[in-house]
Design brief:
heterodimer; A: about 675 residues; two-stranded antiparallel sheet; disordered N terminus; B: about 350 residues; mainly beta; 4-stranded antiparallel sheet; nucleus (chain A); membrane (chain A); mRNA transport (chain A)
Chain lengths: ~675, ~350
């Protein structure tokens, strides 16, 4: 590799062959960011060949990188305890229109703060949210040693994501805006991609180097250098010309190179290097591959110099040539990139899964939208061997979206996002949501409401009811009956409501107090509300009317309750006894509260509950009532035949008859 | 949604449950505004954050929003922040999911070179740093002696440090009033999951003096409530089905006006302090609604849709798909802020 400390002397120099062979060999070829140069598509003759950290003018003016930055406001302050993937990256994952081709991925990851001492400089950088492509700027930090290993590995994941994403954009996503001539676009974009995603150390300008070694002594070498400089300057630019014009000019230019090559004998070391440069400029496959330090560089070199007008389909042929000579390594990012170049999209996405779940999910989503990825057979190796093909095909997009969503759904904070991803999965999202939504822990109403919203939005009725039931039980345990009833009503849990209902009635039988019943007042009911709760509400209303002295209306409500036949048998004696104060009140005010029919109905019910069939329940209820239904408390004496009630009813019937002689006499 | 207007989003270091502007007496020439945000669902890492919204220099206005929100202090908060109010210049009152009410003192201090502020690993790069100190904690809500109940809301009256009345409600079903003086005959109104609004007279706290509900949606749970400070008989409620309903406490038989700006839970409502008839709402559906109940003809030309003679504008952000839990508006800075589950602070300049 080139040595970043190696400086090119500004004055004339000689070099010892032994040492410089190794250096120059590396330096001379397109392994440099500068080699692929600027954004305008021209060959950057200023910047190849030499390596120097001293010649950093190009680096510092910042015009080379075209990374898009969004300034964070406020500053991003890296908290060592916060996991970047969890707190930043996932939250900002977005697809949005972009000016170039309608698609961009906002990963929303923030650069960590790694150098506290250089406050001012670092602060400016730390305000940036990086959008893809972003590696150009990250590259400035590659040499920085991270204190935090985790941050370092996340940053490297981020770079890998960016490399894969950008390549896929270049070769799969059709451009809607004509930034370059269509025929030259791939080579220019590929060159940009390599510079952004796989940059090397800083290298000095080619012209500077050539001028540096040119002694202007009229020698043959000096002439060659001038000719090379002329060739570098006269390179036809793919972006500026029409297709035929470009080919014509390029043909002429290549002939010029050939002419020069025939003159160079290549005897001295320097002449040999110049010869190599000319070979590269001609796009000579073997030379470019030999001089490249990585397969990406070779690919970029072969396309840029050899096939500047090629399209994405041709990349696999070029790649085949490269793979014969260069070992590509087997990192997930290499594997993924190669598969994408060979247009084996499914395999590429599989490798992406090893880089980051976010990448595989979003890439498969976007490629699916472009109809580039669909379903794969999910045969296991075992199935293949035994020729079993019963397993249904898997929708790749959904598979990866579901994996990504699943990874988030149990995160203590990000669980809501997991469900947002599930919502994007038409086939299996619903079943995943229905399984998982009930497994999210919740403690209070605030979080419960969020879960219930998810259920409502996605039609998860059963789960909505389950969560409501759990909340109802929680409130029940804490004796917050009104809230419990509301949740049980929402859950349609009639069994639990029945238990609460019985408990309320029992409480009244035992104490004669309305405290429990008053909680019903705060529950708003409608026609669909459960009968038991409606009964409690009406019964409470009856007591309220009675207390207000509205005995006529109270009588109507009581008859309504009796006729509804909702109350359990054990509560009937209470309901019947409730008629007694109304009868007495009516008598005092000379009002007929119950008509003859009402009286008859009460008597019939009285007859029923005191019959042999319900004897046991009746007696038990009377015993419980006797604890508070006493003469001291202002109630008439209670006996097992409810004599006082019978007498009052008889009296009422007589009053009815006197009032209206045409009404039937009760014994008729 | 085609008529969605854009909100500016920035990372807020947690899912925000409440946002509140400081109640300090601001003048028109003040160049910055303070506000606080509180988080929820962050396990042991819930926090209160104090922000400063500052005008950006005029020369930069074409490039960036005309204000800049910066964090100036941060402090851990026990439990989710359920409600939050500033009292005067520097007291911040919060209620928590642990059933407590806390009071924090926000004080400015001149930074000492030897003393580096490192709360939450945050270094504050501003001229004047602030610190927040907890000064009072009251444990108000519980189901039983050992079992706390989450607080669900809070109200303060009047908005001064003198003679404060603070009301807090919780999942234990209790409405707790403190520092209420005897000569006050104030009324308190509550709304809840049962769909009822209940009016209490402080002299007879055991029984509501009135209760009412929306007869069209009797069981629609109510999430939030606001009293119009310029017309105290006017209140507005937001429901779980996305309805915003205006009531007149002098006629409770039916709602005065109703609209349906959101698809889902409405979490907070604000009356525009200067412009009568304008209401702001935020919702689970990830949008902020601006409702004009008395739209003038000239306003109809602007964005928005007219439903039942109520003009509705919607604000949202591409960076926010999740619920907006809280909003607040500062008329002096003309700034609307919102806190969302997507860990973003949302903001927009609004007349």
């Amino acid at each position: 590799m080139s040595n970043p400390e190696f400086r090119i002397p500004s004055a004339d120099f000689t070099f010892s062959t032994e040492r410089d062979l190794s250096d120059v060999d590396e330096l001379a070829f397109p392994q440099t960011t500068r080699f692929y140069g600027r954004d305008n598509g021209s060959f950057d003759s200023e910047s190849y060949l030499t390596s120097s950290t001293g010649d950093a003018a190009v680096e510092q003016n910042g015009t080379i990188y075209n990374s898009r930055k969004v300034y964070l406001n406020p500053l991003y302050m890296h908290d060592g305890e916060i996991n970047w993937s969890n707190t930043n990256k996932t939250l900002g994952a977005k697809f949005s229109p972009n000016s170039i081709n309608g698609l961009v991925c906002y990963v929303f990851g923030k650069e960590p703060k790694e150098k506290g001492e250089e406050a001012e400089e670092i602060l400016n950088q730390d305000q940036q949210v990086y959008t893809c492509p972003l590696s150009g700027t990250i590259d400035d930090r590659r040499s920085i040693k991270f204190k935090d290993e985790k941050v370092h590995s996340e940053l490297s994941t981020f770079q890998d994501i960016s490399a894969v994403w950008e390549l896929c954009r270049i070769i799969y996503i059709p451009s809607t805006k004509q930034e370059y001539n269509q025929f030259g676009q791939l080579s220019l974009e590929l060159r940009k991609w390599i510079n952004l995603c796989f940059p090397l150390h800083r290298l000095a300008g080619a012209k500077t180097f050539l001028k540096g070694i040119d002694k202007n002594d009229g020698s043959e070498l000096s002439d060659y250098i001038k000719l090379v400089l002329d060739i570098l300057d006269s390179r036809p630019h793919v972006a500026d010309l029409e297709y035929h014009e470009f080919n014509l000019r390029r043909h002429e230019w290549l002939s010029k190179i050939s002419d020069l090559q025939t003159k160079i004998r290549g005897e001295s070391f320097l002449e040999g290097r110049i010869y190599d440069i000319l070979m590269i400029l001609r796009g000579h496959t073997k030379t470019i591959i030999e001089k490249s330090s990585s397969w990406q560089e070779a690919l970029g070199g072969l396309v840029y110099h050899g096939r500047p007008t090629c399209d994405a389909q041709e990349l696999k042929n070029i790649m085949n040539v490269i793979l014969k000579s260069i070992d590509t390594g087997s990192t997930p990012v290499d594997d993924a990139l190669i598969e994408f170049i060979f247009r084996r999209v499914e395999k590429g996405i599989q490798h992406c899964e090893r880089i980051d779940l976010w990448l595989s999910a979003h890439l498969s989503d976007i490629l699916n939208k472009l109809d580039l990825v669909g379903r794969i057979h999910s045969q296991s190796s075992h199935q293949r061997q035994s020729n079993i093909t019963t397993q249904p095909d898997v929708d790749i997009r959904e598979h990866y979206l579901l994996s990504y969503a699943e990874s988030m759904v149990f995160h203590t904070t990000l669980w809501q996002l997991g469900f947002k991803y599930f919502e994007q999965c038409e086939l299996c999202g619903y079943s995943y949501m229905s399984q998982l939504v009930v497994r999210i822990p919740f403690e209070d109403e605030y979080k419960t409401n969020k879960l219930l919203s998810i259920c409502k939005e996605n039609g998860l009725t059963f789960q909505e009811k389950t969560i409501s039931r759990i909340m109802g039980k929680k409130y029940w345990q804490n004796e917050r009956y009104a809230s419990a009833i509301v949740y049980f009503i929402n859950a349609g849990d009639t069994a639990s409501l029945e238990v609460i209902y019985r408990r309320f009635l029992d409480n009244y039988i035992d104490t004669g107090e309305l405290t429990f019943l008053n909680t019903i007042e705060s529950i708003q009911l409608d026609d669909d509300s459960p009968v038991s709760i409606k009964f409690l509400s009406r019964y409470r209303f009856f007591h309220a009317l009675k207390q207000n002295g509205e005995i006529q209306r109270a009588g109507t409500i009581l008859m309504e309750l009796l006729r509804a036949q909702v109350a359990p048998i054990s509560f009937w004696p209470v309901l019947l006894l409730n008629a007694l104060p109304l009868l007495q009140g009516g008598k005092a005010r000379k009002m007929i509260i119950f008509s003859t029919q009402d009286t008859l109905e009460i008597l019939r019910n009285l007859q029923d509950v005191t019959s042999f069939v319900y004897q046991e329940e009746f007696s038990a209820c009377i015993e419980r009532l006797k604890k508070w239904h006493t003469v001291e408390n202002g109630y008439p004496e209670l006996d097992n035949n409810l004599t006082s009630l019978r007498l009052a009813l008889l009296q009422n019937s007589a009053d009815c008859y006197i009032e209206n002689p045409s009404s039937p006499w009760m014994f008729e | 949604m085609p008529d969605l207007e854009s909100l500016y989003a920035q990372h807020a270091y947690g899912k925000l449950s409440k946002v509140r502007f400081s109640a300090s007496q601001q003048t028109y020439d003040s160049r910055f505004t303070l506000f606080a945000t509180g988080t929820w669902d962050e396990k042991e890492k819930n926090a209160l954050t104090l922000w400063k919204s500052e005008e950006t220099p005029i020369s930069l206005r074409n490039l960036v929003p005309s204000y800049e929100n910066k964090i100036i202090a941060k402090i851990a908060h026990k439990g989710d922040v359920r409600d939050m109010q500033f009292i005067g210049d520097n007291l911040l009152l919060t209620s928590s999911s642990k059933g407590c009410v806390h009071v924090f003192n926000c004080v400015k201090f001149e930074r000492d070179e030897t003393e580096r502020e490192t709360d939450f690993d945050i270094e504050m790069h501003v001229d004047h740093a602030y610190k927040m100190h907890p000064i009072i904690t009251h444990y108000l809500h519980s189901f039983s002696e050992n079992k706390s109940a989450a607080a669900t809301g809070m109200a303060i009256k009047p908005f001064s440090t003198q003679d404060l009345e603070i009301a807090s409600v919780g999942e234990d079903g209790k409405l707790v009033l403190f520092k209420v003086t005897d000569q006050n005959h104030r009324k308190i109104i509550t709304a809840g999951s049962s769909g009822q609004l209940r009016l209490f007279d402080c002299r007879n706290p055991n029984k509501p003096c009135a209760k009412f509900y929306d007869p069209a949606h009797p069981r629609d749970a109510l999430n939030c409530l606001k009293v119009n400070s310029s017309q105290v008989h006017q209140i507005v409620s937001g429901s779980s089905q996305g309805f915003v309903t205006i009531w007149d406490t002098r006629n409770l038989s039916k709602p005065e006006k109703q609209t349906h700006p959101h698809k889902n839970n409405v979490y907070e409502l604000i009356f525009h302090p200067y412009r009568a008839g304008i209401l702001l709402s935020c919702s689970e559906d990830g949008t902020i609604g601006i409702m004009d109940f008395n739209p003038h003809a000239e306003n109809l030309r602007h964005h928005g849709t007219l439903r039942d003679s109520i003009l509705i504008r919607k604000l949202g952000s591409g960076f926010n798909n999740l619920a907006i839990n809280s909003i607040d508006y500062n008329p002096v800075a003309r700034l609307l802020i919102g806190g969302s589950d997507s860990q973003n602070l949302l903001s927009k300049e609004l007349e």
